Amino acid sequence: MAYVLLSSAKDDQLATRSFNQFSNLSELSQHIIDYFEEWLMLKEDNPTGDLEETPLEYTSDDLFNFMDTFFAELVCLEENQDTKLWVPHTTDWVKEQVYFELRGQTHKHVMQDQTNQHQNNTQSAQDTVMELDSPNNRANTFVY
């Protein structure tokens, strides 16, 4: 299993530096996205703190601007499984990983929406066929 270590510090203050360990790049990216969304909820004064009730809308540029302005340092080390050496990465590399994660989540949501829409259309068509096939409507049944 590869590991990713994230080093972050806020506002040029060494005392705020923290280190987080993740099992993979997806976990690292999701951590940053979640942190940003929590910050947005506080900024928007979301009283419930529940994303289901109050969906957040933002662009990747909003997230990247947050990463640039909120963190004075945002770098990581990724373990190379073959060499067992740690490879350093810059903030731009971290942004790229976050972008890939967002793109994957968007694709997943689009596919889920299309699946749900297809299931709803299929159910609606089945309901229509059942309605048309009832004894009272047999004379009005059309085949397309």
Summarize this entry quickly.
Helices cover 50% and strands 17% of the residues.
Map the helices and strands:
Layout: E1 4-10, E2 18-22, H1 25-43, H2 60-70, E3 71-79, E4 86-89, H3 91-132
Helix pairs in contact: 1-3, 2-3
Write up this protein.
β1 (4-10) and β2 (18-22) form a beta hairpin. The chain has helices at 25-43, 60-70, 91-132; strands at residues 4-10, 18-22, 71-79, 86-89. It starts with a strand and ends in a 12-residue tail after the last helix. The protein has one domain (4-106): ERH-like fold. It is flat. α1 crosses α3 (91-132) and α2 packs antiparallel against α3. The model is unreliable at 134-144 (pLDDT under 50). The longest helix has 42 residues, at 91-132. A 4-stranded antiparallel beta sheet has the order 2-1-3-4. It contains 3 helices and 4 strands; from the N terminus they run ββααββα. The chain is an alpha+beta fold and 144 residues long. Helix content is 50%, strand content 17%.
Characterize the main sheet. 4 strands, antiparallel
Supply the number of helical segments. Answer: 3
Model regions low in confidence, pLDDT < 50 over at least 5 residues = 134-144
| Number of structural units classed as domains | 1
Cα-atom radius of gyration: 24 Å
Number of strands: 4
The CATH architecture can be given as 2-Layer Sandwich
Instruction: Record the strand order, biggest sheet.
Output: 2-1-3-4
Q: What are the secondary-structure elements, in order, as H or E?
A: EEHHEEH
